[in-house]
Amino acid sequence: MTQSKHFHVQGQTVVIAGGSKGLGREIAIQLTTQGAHVTILARSPGPLEETRKELLSHTQSADQVINAAAVDLTDPKQVQEFITSLATPPSILFIVAGGTAAQVGFFANITPEEIKSCMDQNYFAAAYIAHACLRRWLQEPSADSNSNSKRHLIFTASTAAFLGFPGYAAYTPTKAATRALADTLRSEVLLYRAQQDIRVHCSFPGTIYTDAFYEEQIRKPQLLKEMEGSADNKGGLTAAKVAELTLRGLRAGQGYITVDGETELLLNNMRGSSPRDRPVRDWVMGMVASLVWPVYRWRFDRMTGAFGQKMGREEWTRQFGEREE
């Protein structure tokens, strides 16, 4: 594959936080086939070792380095120890850890502990390793200034960063926070541009057909399934396809990456000060979105109201109990 001046991976050292399963695993495979040295991180040693062996079968040269490390990304001490232990800092950090299988549900139905764990798994897990890696980069600046010496920090948010569907009340704030962190760091790293070239990116995948997706369906409210299309397994992509499209966006030099038309509309309807990689197209998409999404919002509100009426007062009372006087 032809290397890009924006995102060069052959011979580069890549760390993938959340690289043992799903999207992270597919990104790891594709980067390995493109000649990168890849280290995957996750909490569970078993899936890590299985994926590491899979990656070894995709290496392109005998000197390609493939590693795996069991790290609890929600523990800042473990994250810092891992980053410090590296002989040299990575050139590229992908942050793909997270999910919502255990916390999906209407806000009143989930527990405070589930709200906290969702923020830990999706936001703090991303923030801790981004923080540790950035500090290591600043301690050890890149040796030269050519295009291959760029350092890349790639967050993974979600379409949910722009769209609050009923049932994702624990999840959507974590992805909105991830987007806000990416926005802030994109600006902050300009402080260090004279020292080194650090690029911050954020991808916004929608529904991805992984094992975690199917586990999520067990707890997912029917209303949420109907709104996002997962009731009929519509509108999603495989993890391999999302990985391919994400890497294509990086090679094109995009800061914010979408992999489907609906998310691109939502992004451009809510872009604010976030970077515009294709200004004219983004402006047109924003104008279209300003006309399209109010119609969708009206439809979703009607669906929610109708679902509530169908459930009825007796069902809600059964779920939550009568309020004590």
Automatic annotation (TrEMBL):
Instruction: Give the main localization category.
Output: endoplasmic reticulum
Report the EC code(s) recorded for this entry: 1.1.1.102
Q: Does the keyword Lipoprotein apply?
A: no
> Which pathway is it part of?
Lipid metabolism; sphingolipid metabolism; Sphingolipid metabolism
What subcellular locations does the record give? Endoplasmic reticulum
A GO BP term here is: 3-keto-sphinganine metabolic process
Gene3D superfamilies attached here? NAD(P)-binding Rossmann-like Domain
The entry's protein name is: 3-dehydrosphinganine reductase
Q: Which reaction does it catalyse?
A: sphinganine + NADP(+) = 3-oxosphinganine + NADPH + H(+)
GO CC, alphabetical? endoplasmic reticulum membrane
Q: Which keywords does the record carry?
A: Endoplasmic reticulum, Lipid metabolism, NADP, Oxidoreductase, Sphingolipid metabolism
| UniProt domain Ketoreductase: residue ranges | 12-207
Q: Which domain of life is it from?
A: Eukaryota
